[in-house]
Specification:
The structure is a single chain. The chain contains 14 helices and 19 strands. By secondary structure, the protein is an alpha/beta fold. The strands form 5 sheets. Strands 1-2-6-5-3-4-7 form a 7-stranded mixed β-sheet, with helices on both faces. The longest helix has 19 residues.
C-alpha cells in the first residue's frame, strides 16, 4: 500500500502547501500518542535547520506534542545527527528534525527518530499515517497533564565534543587549511568551530543564514562555490555539507569533487587497516558506482546494495552487523559513532586519514576510477508510466544492450515527482545512448 505522507526520508514538501501548521500539529499529536508508553513524563527533542518556515513548524509541532502530554525540549538550529545523538543522550522518547535537507528554502520537512536515535521504521510510519487522518480530539490529555516546553542550552558544545571524540585523542589538524561550506544551514556554527578547535585554519562559506538562502549556490548540491574558494585560497581541502548536515562532499586541493563512493572507500580501508571494520564489507545503494564495487573486491571486501535512501542502508547495516555504509550523494553512516548520516563526522574521518598518510587529498581520496555513469530525470504529473508495455520493453532491451558489464537503474524519486534513470558501464557512448533512449520512451508515456 502506498503512503500518503511519508517518503524515503520523513515527510517533505512545500511549506504552507504540503507542510502546513495543521499537518505539523497532527504529526505531533499522532506521534506523541504512539510513543506515549507509560505514566511517566514523556519527552521529545526538536531541532531544525535555518529555513524561515522552521519557526512555524516548530511551534505547531510543539503544540501537538504538548496537547498529548509530552514535554518538549527545543534545540534550535542543529544538524540532523545532533538531534539523533541528543535523543539518546537526553533519554527522550522521540527526536524530531525540521528540515528539507538539500531542498530550497520554500520546502520543509519532518524527520522522526525513536528513543534509540534511529529513524522510524516503515510500520511505525504507517501507524502515524493512520492517525493523521483520524479525529484525535478524544485522545488529548486532561488539562493537568498538558506538557511543558523549554529551550535547551549548550547544545552546540555537546555536539562539537561528540564529533571531536570520534577522532584519536592526539590528532591535530594543525597545518591544514580547510574551507568549510555549511550551505547556510544547520551546521553553520558547529562545523567551523569544531574544525578550528581541532587546530585547522578555517575558511568559512555558507555561514550567514537568513531564512531564505539555505542551499542557494552553496552546500553539497552546489559545490562550484566551494571549488572556486579552495583554488582561490589554496586550501588543502574543501568540505561541503547540505542543509541539515547529514551528508558531505569533499573537494581536493585541485578543486576536484570527491563523492560519497570515494569517501566510503577511504574510510573502509582505514577501518580495515585499524581492525575496526566490523564486517569485511560496505553497505551502499543501487546508485553507487560499479567502480566502488570492483575496488572493494580488490581489497577483499564486499559491497552490499540496498534501495535508495540512507534509512535502508542503515537497516541493512544493523541487520547484518556492518559499521560502514552510505550513499554516493554523501550520506556516510559510521554506526560506531552515529545512528544516521553525519557529514561532519565523516569529514573528520577523512581528515584523520589525510593527516596520518601525509599526502594530498587528491591522492588520499582518489581510490578508484569511476565507471561512466549517466543520470537523467523524467518529470511526470501522475499515473504509472513505468508499467506501460512500451516502457517495460524499452527497459528490457536497454539492459540487454549493456549486458554484464553495465547496470541500468530506473526508480521513482521518493522526494520529487520525477523518475530517475541511471546507467553505467565501461563504454560511455553506449551508456549515454541507452539512458537517453529509455528517457525518451518514459517521457512520451508520462506526457
Amino acid at each position: 500500500m502506498g503512503r500518503k505522507y511519508f517518503g524515503t526520508d520523513g515527510i517533505r514538501g512545500r511549506s504552507n502547501g504540503i507542510i502546513t501548521p495543521e499537518l505539523a500539529l497532527k504529526v505531533g499529536q499522532a506521534t506523541g500518542i504512539i510513543f506515549r508508553r507509560g505514566d511517566y513524563r514523556h519527552r521529545v527533542v526538536i531541532g531544525k535547520d535555518t529555513r524561515l518556515s522552521g519557526y512555524m513548524i516548530e511551534n505547531a509541532l510543539t503544540a501537538g506534542f504538548l496537547s498529548v502530554g509530552m514535554d518538549v525540549m527545543l534545540l534550535g538550529p542543529v544538524p540532523t545527527p545532533a538531534v539523533a545523538m541528543l535523543t539518546r543522550s537526553m533519554r527522550a522518547d522521540l527526536g524530531v528534525m525540521i528540515s528539507a535537507s538539500h531542498n530550497a528554502f520554500e520546502d520543509n520537512g519532518i524527520k522522526l527518530f525513536g528513543p534509540d536515535g534511529y529513524k522510524l521504521k516503515d510500520d511505525i510510519e504507517r501507524e502515524i499515517e493512520l492517525l493523521l487522518d483520524a479525529d484525535l480530539s478524544r485522545r488529548l490529555v486532561d488539562s493537568k497533564w498538558i506538557g511543558r516546553a523549554k529551550r535547551v542550552e549548550g547544545v552546540h558544545a555537546r555536539y562539537i565534543e561528540f564529533a571531536k571524540r570520534t577522532l584519536p585523542r592526539n590528532l591535530s589538524l594543525e597545518g591544514l587549511r580547510v574551507v568549510i561550506d555549511c550551505a547556510n544551514g544547520a551546521a553553520y556554527s558547529v562545523a567551523p568551530d569544531a574544525l578550528w578547535e581541532l587546530g585547522a585554519e578555517v575558511v568559512k562559506l555558507g555561514v550567514t543564514p537568513d531564512g531564505f538562502n539555505i542551499n542557494r549556490e552553496v552546500g553539497s548540491t552546489a559545490p562550484a562555490t566551494l571549488q572556486a574558494k579552495v583554488r582561490e585560497v589554496r586550501a588543502d581541502i574543501g568540505i561541503a555539507l547540505d542543509g541539515d548536515a547529514d551528508r558531505v562532499l569533499i573537494v581536493d586541493e585541485k578543486g576536484q569533487i570527491v563523492d560519497g563512493d570515494q569517501l566510503m572507500a577511504v574510510v573502509a580501508k582505514s577501518f580495515r587497516d585499524d581492525g575496526r571494520l566490523a564486517k569485511p564489507g560496505v553497505v551502499a545503494t543501487i546508485m553507487s558506482n560499479l567502480g566502488l564495487e570492483r575496488h572493494l573486491q580488490d581489497l577483499g571486501l564486499s559491497l552490499a546494495r540496498t534501495a535508495v535512501g540512507d534509512r535502508y542502508v542503515l537497516e541493512h547495516m544493523r541487520e547484518h552487523g556492518f559499521n560502514v555504509g552510505g550513499e554516493q550523494s554523501g550520506h556516510i553512516i559510521l554506526s560506531d559513532f552515529s545512528t544516521t548520516g553525519d557529514g561532519l563526522v565523516a569529514a573528520l574521518q577523512v581528515l584523520n586519514v589525510v593527516q596520518r598518510e601525509g599526502r594530498p587529498v587528491s591522492e588520499v581520496c582518489h581510490r578508484f576510477e569511476p565507471l561512466p555513469q549517466i543520470l537523467m530525470n523524467v518529470r511526470y504529473l501522475g499515473g504509472q508510466p513505468l508499467k506501460e508495455e512500451r516502457v517495460v520493453t524499452a527497459i528490457e532491451q536497454a539492459r540487454a544492450k549493456l549486458g554484464r558489464n553495465g547496470r541500468l537503474i530506473i526508480r521513482p524519486s521518493g522526494t520529487e515527482p520525477v523518475i530517475r534513470v541511471m546507467g553505467e558501464g565501461d563504454d560511455r557512448d553506449l551508456v549515454t545512448e541507452v539512458v537517453e533512449g529509455v528517457v525518451n520512451v518514459i517521457a512520451k508515456a508520462a506526457a
